[in-house]
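Whether sequence alone determines local backbone shape is best considered at the level of individual chains. For completeness, the protein is quoted in full, as a sequence line and a line of structure tokens:
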Amino acid sequence: MPSGDARMRLGHHARGAVSAENARRAMLLRGLTPNGHPLWVPPEAYNLRYGYPDYDAVMVLNIRRTRQAHHSKAGRMGITKPRAREWDPNELFRLHRLYPRATKQELLSALPGRTWTAICRRANADGYFRPKLARPSGIGLIDQILSRAIQHHDSLKDLDRATSGAGYFSRRKWQGRRNHTVEARAVAYLGGTIKVRWVQPPAFSS
């Protein structure tokens, strides 16, 4: 037979269960939550389930519901997208080491389970960026340098640093005045050489 304390605890839980049931019946009778908000009805839940995640379209159908109410209800219904798993230290190490230079496929292979969008967002948030592609210049040697830099995953600022170019590549200074010394340094940095190719015979005067 339960002791006095046990009977008191059982009585407390029983009274709580009765109170909860009475509150539930009162909500159903009034059609309102204790906060005064209308209870969700099946058509509203149906609209949300099959309209998610286009909340704007769902709100046209469920005109008495706010956007926040739709967000909360979607969570309780279990139809919201699951949160992305946290990045572990090993993933972050690989991301930070590879992101500035590796190809897209190399990154996806090194970080299985991560989408390209998730990889870019996390890397950028941590201050890591990929080299920007350069627009063609229309100048043969310059375009060969830019093309080779892209193959090596070097940014225009990388070229400037390697050649002491003071913005020659990143600021497209070749458009004003060509600096052949900087261009020759860039060719050497990228593992190339400059050769002369004669296209016409010299003209001799008589």
Remarks:
- Residues 75 and 83 are 12 Å apart (CA to CA).
